[in-house]
Amino acid sequence: MIVGVGVDLVEITRFERSLTRTPRLVTRLFAPAERPLAARSLAARFAAKEALIKALGGSDNVHWTEIEIVPEPSGRPRFALSGTTAAEIERRGITALHVSMSHDGGLATAYVIAEAES
């Protein structure tokens, strides 16, 4: 059963300016393995994290660096959650998270669907 849907859209140039203006945002928003990625990939991951928070209905007990987007061997993105964020997802009874990300034309977008047992 779908318990939440989230979407987010990020202007890549604006996001890149924010990272340049405030370099510590990278360490506050991204897991260590994500940090070396290009700005367009970071923007898509930021959108995915925002979309996850929207699908959850809020950010209580959810921490940015505990949400990592990793590719499956096929290239399909998936969430790798840790710490209190993983515990919160489990506490809410969420059994599956689906994420889709894209970037084109100066924009990055992401959709997230959260599922739980009925």
From TrEMBL:
Ranges that cross the membrane: none
Keywords: Cytoplasm, Fatty acid biosynthesis, Fatty acid metabolism, Lipid biosynthesis, Lipid metabolism, Magnesium, Metal-binding, Transferase
Similarity comment text for this entry: Belongs to the P-Pant transferase superfamily. AcpS family.
Keyword check for Cytoplasm: yes
All residue ranges annotated as the 4'-phosphopantetheinyl transferase domain in the record: 4-87
Name of the protein described by the UniProt record: Holo-[acyl-carrier-protein] synthase
EC identifiers of the protein: 2.7.8.7
SUPFAM superfamilies noted in UniProt: 4'-phosphopantetheinyl transferase
Catalytic activity: apo-[ACP] + CoA = holo-[ACP] + adenosine 3',5'-bisphosphate + H(+)
Record-linked Pfam families: ACPS
Localization: Cytoplasm
Gene3D superfamilies: 4'-phosphopantetheinyl transferase domain
Organism field: Microbacterium koreense
Signal peptide as annotated in the record: none
List of residues binding Mg(2+): 8, 50
Domain of life: Bacteria
Molecular function as annotated in GO: holo-[acyl-carrier-protein] synthase activity
Cofactor: Mg(2+)
